[in-house]
Amino acid sequence: MATAGLHDSELGELQRRLIILRVGLLLVMALLGLQLWNLQIREGPYYRDLSENNRTRSVIMEPARGLIYDRNGVLLANNVPSFTLYVSLEDVKDRDRLIDQLSTLLGLDAELVRKKLTARGSKQLPRKVKDRLTLREATLVESHRLDMPGVMVQVESQRNYPGGMTASHLLGYVGEVSPEQLEKPEFADLHQGSIVGQYGVEKFFDQLVRGQAGQKSIEVDAVGHEKRTVVVEQPHAGDNLYLTIDTRLQKVAENLLGEETGAIVALDPRTGDVLAMASRPGFDPNILSRELTPKQWAEIVQDEGRPLNNRASQGQYPPGSVFKVMMAAAALETKTVTPSTSIYCNGGYQFGGRLYRDWKVGGHGSVDLRHALVQSCDVYFYTVGQRMGIETMASFAHQFGLGEETGIELPSERVGIVPSEAWKRKAKNQEWFPGETISASIGQGYVNVTPLQMASLIGTVANDGVMFRPRLVQAVMDRETGELQQRPAVPKRTLKLRPGILSLIREALSGVVKEGTGTKAQSELVTIAGKTGTAQTRSLGKEKKAEKDIPKKFRDHAWFVAFAPVEAPTIAVAVLGEHMGHGGSASAPLAKELIETYVKLNLSVPSAVKNGEAVRGGDAGGQGTR
Amino acid sequence: MIERGSRSRGFDNFDVRFIGLIFAILGIGVLSIYSVTHDQGVAFPFYAKQIVWILLGTVAFLVMWLSDYHRIARLAYPAYAIILILLIVVLFEGRSSRGAQRWIPMGPFAFQPSEFAKLVLILTLAHYYSQAPRVGWLQRVVLPGLLVLPGLLLILKQPDLGSGLSFLAIYAAMLLMVGMRSKAVGVILLFSLMLFPFAWEITWGALHDYQRQRIMTFVDPLYDTGGTGYHALQSRIAIGAGELTGKGLYGGTQSQLKFLPEGHTDFVFSVFAEEWGFLGVLALLLLFVGLIWLSLEVVSRAKDQLGALLAVGILCMLCFCVVINIGMTAGMFPIVGIPLPLMSYGGSATIMTMASLGLLLNVKRRRLSFF
């Protein structure tokens, strides 16, 4: 070759210079090797953690809440599948943009979304942004998912109340656990977005019904798509509850109240079982279990009818003449009067320069205890109350369960007021005035009771002095094992009364319906005993007006308590109608209807319940075993 | 031409080792590409295409191996002219991908002139130095520098920082191997220092935003893991998570679940490192070192300056790409987009690299011209 070999000296020089390359190459390769050693061996575990974290996302599997049935196995609360929107914060690239997208896509309030995404809590766990997505919304989100990394739509079970408004105050509703609740120990194993009972049985038995959340670890790719599930910790469904109420009776009770405001409670006096407990106005727990905007919530809370108030256990009213049942028992026990003691009623009672009227103008004439109950003579009880004094009255009222919780398994039960000298000093910082004893002796003045307490009181009278704690849940079924656990009836106390006193009162109460103020409760089906009450909402002693002339909100509350059958009572009822006027005319017919319904139902009821045989896998309750 | 010895007629042991190493690395490359792209669900996935490129590359290898490299070198200047034209064409007609215009579409495929420009530059420079004795710093440094410049500028315009750096590296390596007087080295250093502010201004100003950001994130790779530092961090996680023995074939979650982008091209090493661990990485490095070591043997056995310069140029290019690619995936260098020779998916790069290695092996041969 012509050109080859021309620069042989330079070739040799070049080849000698190769040593630089050789050394350089080995040096550089050693450096690379060292760096790789660093990454893979020294820091390997750290990077392995990072890579695990990169690919796995924790997803909470919400447990199915326990189902709620009535005493006959009628479903009251179940779960239906629904779409829930979650955001996995780790995968979100641009939070502001995502908030923007979600709020325009689903018409959500941007601030609300922001609050959910920025709320305190684990960054690893996805945040719940919206539940009960419609199918359309879910599809919309799914189709934009590539555009919104971190967004997931999960199918979850959603609380559903097939009965709508039926027994709403009893059942309650569910909702997301609040930040304040999360701080408390009983919610320790929950997280933002967990559903807990917020009212009623749902709240009181939440620990049983709630179940336990599971967790699945899913492997996702770089865009957040689910590739496969790596670890599954199955959720544990909550326990099922079997309530003591009879839905049919409950519906009748609610319909009886209709548009009126008030409460009806029906108990089985032999066990304390709550057969029905209606409060009106009511609410639809399906709506309240959804996420409400602050505005919707304000509307419900500010509603003048206060539909969230369970008037049966939280409404406090003067008992009016119903109080005389307790007064009669106290008077006999303390021997203030005997059954034959007569007191003359001339239509008013003069005390301390003031006239305390009887409801009947002109008076009842000479009355004994039975007559006083049957005709609801005020003067008789003014006299008796004056003789006993407020302290004796208070101690008997307490014995009859007034001024204390009945112990029903519902949140925030109110206790009412049993006034006494000590109570007044404490509550009003005032001395007791003797005239107040007179008002109190016919259940006016400071005396305040709940319809539930009244039902329990009349039930105790019907059950010959043995008071039961109202029972709402008769059995709990463990959903994992299928094991049904009965919850026994709990006797609370036995009234300390001499034998015969209560039977005497029961006879008088039967007279109330037969010939007295409660004749509108007379039934052809069953013998009913009861007591009317008309609780004045204005101060006593004002001149009487025809009821129709008084504006509704100033009308009296109408009470009627009853039990039936008189010979062997199986049901005790308290009816309270707010501003419905006279107990005898307004409430007594409602009590009668309810009792007749109960009797008819139990005649036609399949013998299964009566004989205590299995209903949905277990004993339906104590009714048949007695 | 009549050859001088009889040994050159067939394969010898050296050739077998050399070719064996090449195909071993190619095989590892295909395996890694397969691992990341096997579930693509397309009729003609990347690994299959890569096998086609390797077959075409084998043809290129044989042609370059079995022709006379002196003849090939004589085509250097026209070839360089053609490449410059193609580089101009690509600026106007080229296909863009991720902000860079590097490809000339050819039917279903695309041709990347900047890859071939590297080999042509080696040929050109080797040809230039071996044609006549080049003395004085003007002939040794400035004139070849002027040869490099148009190609370099056109490539940077695309922009293709990786190929541009390869260009510079080839030029620097050739200069170094040709040898310079200490005076010349001093003058170059002085000029470089004086020109540095301007050069900085020009180069930094000419860089695209994403290039600047890449270099910035190299300084602190963890500062924005969702943005510009994402590639760098995901790549390091992939390599680090491989630990000693790796996660096994298809076991690399970083690449399988697409956390690691470009797993079949620039970051194929990370895929391999995640699946085969430090032991696999060590074996792969040894394969590369072996190949380069054999290349060094070729240089030291070269019979003329052209052969030696060709071999040195190819060897340095190979070396540069391997070191920069592995270094960038391992977080030692900024991410500049240099593929790993013989492993990264890519038609132009695979064919060019195999052609270069054919040429390199050719230098060892005593001349026997089939073409």
Question: If you had to describe this structure to a student in words, what would you say it looks like?
Answer:
The complex is a heterodimer of chains A (626) and B (371). With 626 residues, chain A is α+β, with helices and mostly antiparallel strands. The longest helix of chain A has 35 residues, at 8-42. Chain A is elongated, with a radius of gyration of 36 Å. Chain B is mainly alpha-helical and 371 residues long. Chain B has one domain (22-364). Chain B contains 14 helices and three strands. Chain B has helices at 13-37, 46-66, 69-74, 76-93, 113-131, 136-157, 161-178, 182-206, 209-219, 230-241, 253-256, 268-301, 305-329, 347-364, and strands spanning 95-97, 100-106, 109-111. Chain B has a three-stranded antiparallel β-sheet, with helices on one face. The termini of chain B are close together. At the A-B interface, helix 1 and helix 2 of A face helix 7, helix 10, helix 12 and helix 13 of B.
Brief description of this entry?
The complex is a heterodimer of chains A (626) and B (371). Chain A has 626 residues and is of the alpha+beta class.
Show unreliable segments of chain B. Answer: 1-8, 222-226, 367-371
Query: Helix fraction of chain A?
Result: 25-40%
The largest beta-sheet of chain B arranges its strands as 1-2-3
Helix-and-strand structural type of chain A: alpha+beta
Question: What is the helix tally of chain B?
Answer: 14
Structural class by sheet pairing and helices of chain B? mainly alpha
Distance between the termini of chain A: 124 Å
Helix content of chain B: 55-70%
In total, the number of domains of chain A comes to: 2
Main sheet properties of chain A:
7 strands, mixed
N→C terminal distance of chain B: 11 Å
H/E order of the elements of chain B? HHHHEEEHHHHHHHHHH
DSSP strand content of chain B: under 5%
Question: How many separate domains make up the residues of chain B?
Answer: 1
CATH class of the largest domain in chain A: Alpha Beta
Largest inter-chain contact set? A-B, 48 and 57 residues
Count of DSSP-assigned helices of chain A: 23
Radius of gyration of chain A equals 36 Å
* CATH level-3 fold name of the largest domain in chain A: Beta-lactamase
Main β-sheet description of chain B: 3 strands, antiparallel
Mean pLDDT of chain A: 85
